[in-house]
Write a structure and sequence with these properties.
The chain is of the alpha/beta class. The chain is built from 14 helices and 15 strands. Bound molecules: zinc ion (2 copies). The site of one zinc ion has 7 residues, from helix 2.
């Protein structure tokens, strides 16, 4: 089969690799669509992982083969593949902190080499642990593979919204209106929150408004804080979700978030970035800082409901479609987005035709 193999920083190589052999409890999925995630881009562009590896984890496809011991799954079934499933019995899992679980963190879905997701290939192997514990999700007939590939990123966004305890009527500032920021805006609207957004690109500011933001601003706007104060009756927003790794965005968040409010780090910053902060700002204004990484088992059924029952319009987030062969171009595009670049999807099947 064909796969995009990570051979070193910024080196993707489109290669023929063996289809992974199945153990009796495993399932092989033919990848139809895989979303290009910001985390994939980081893994490709920075020296975070030893090559060779095959990344890609927002995978939707068709079961191509089932191991002899697998029950309940048949060849031909359309499925979403989750690459992380927690153990459900360690101290982290028992505290609903699934993304810190060692079993969860240890990625096991693979298209070959050290397991790393495996979605950037024609076939991905799903281990028994994931098959048996909810990591294969059947896709209803009326849901496209493209739509289904949004279950994982939707879960990650939902987890952050739940962690920040956003409720209907809250006002939330989303900094960054890329694919994740836009998804936040859609979800917040669905939950009945008022959303304000910032970005640097005029097209993304417009897009934020079109998917449900009540107001959206250029992040460089000098009057940003006073405008947001005005919209919120002088209070500031209840919560800010940082969907860009920018220290400027963080300081704006401090200015725009109300006393007793919350600021949640969703975007991963480059490791060398440090943010100096006077702790009394947090103490006197009782601002809570929090982080949210990856997905949560607890919101999985909600993520499935939202995507499969089209409670948000994930199709509106898709801007570009690339064959697997051209994954390097897709990465390039995601790093230097044109005004119309949002979510990029990758198609192994286009490559093999
Ligand atoms: Zn992702
Ligand atoms: Zn665990």
């Amino acid at each position: 089969m064909k796969a995009q193999v990570f051979r070193g920083v910024n080196q993707l190589s489109y290669e023929e690799v063996p289809i992974p052999p199945l153990a009796p409890d495993e399932v092989l999925v033919q990848v139809r669509v895989v979303g290009l995630c910001q985390s994939d881009i980081k893994k490709i562009r920075y020296p975070l992982y030893e090559p060779p590896r095959i990344f890609g984890h927002e995978t939707a496809g068709v079961i191509a083969q089932v191991g002899d011991a697998v029950t309940g799954w048949q060849v031909g079934q359309r499925v979403v593949v989750m690459h992380h499933i927690p153990c459900m019995h360690c101290a982290y899992c028992l505290n609903d902190n699934f993304s810190m679980c060692d079993v969860y963190k240890n990625i096991t879905t693979t298209a070959g080499f050290a397991p790393s997701g495996g979605g950037f290939a024609e076939y991905v192997k799903v281990p028994g642990h994931i098959v048996q514990h909810g990591g294969l999700i059947p896709i209803p007939d009326n849901v496209s593979f493209e739509q289904a590939s949004f279950v994982e990123p939707t879960n990650c966004c939902l987890k952050a919204i739940k962690k920040a305890q956003v409720v209907a009527g809250d006002t939330v500032l989303v900094t960054g209106a890329g694919p994740i920021g836009l998804m936040f805006i859609m979800l917040l609207k669905y939950f009945g929150a008022r959303t304000l957004a910032t970005d640097l690109l005029p097209s993304r500011i417009q897009k934020a408004l079109s998917v449900g933001a009540e107001a959206a601003f250029d992040a460089r706007e000098p009057e940003l804080t006073s405008k947001i104060q005005a919209i919120t009756g002088g209070m500031g927003v209840d919560t800010t979700l940082l969907a860009v790794p920018s220290d400027k965005a963080f300081f704006q968040a401090l200015d725009c978030t109300r006393k007793g409010g919350k600021i949640l780090f969703f975007a991963e910053f480059p490791d060398q970035v440090e943010i100096p902060i006077n702790p009394n700002i947090l103490y006197r204004r009782e601002i809570d800082l929090m982080g949210s990484y990856s997905s949560s088992y607890r919101v999985q059924s909600l993520a499935i409901d939202i995507v499969f029952n089209q409670r948000i319009d994930v199709d509106a987030l898709i801007s570009d479609r690339y064959p697997l062969q051209n994954l390097p171009d897709a990465v390039e595009k995601a790093c230097a987005p044109t005004p119309e670049t949002y979510k990029i999807l990758i198609y192994p099947s286009l490559a093999s035709n």
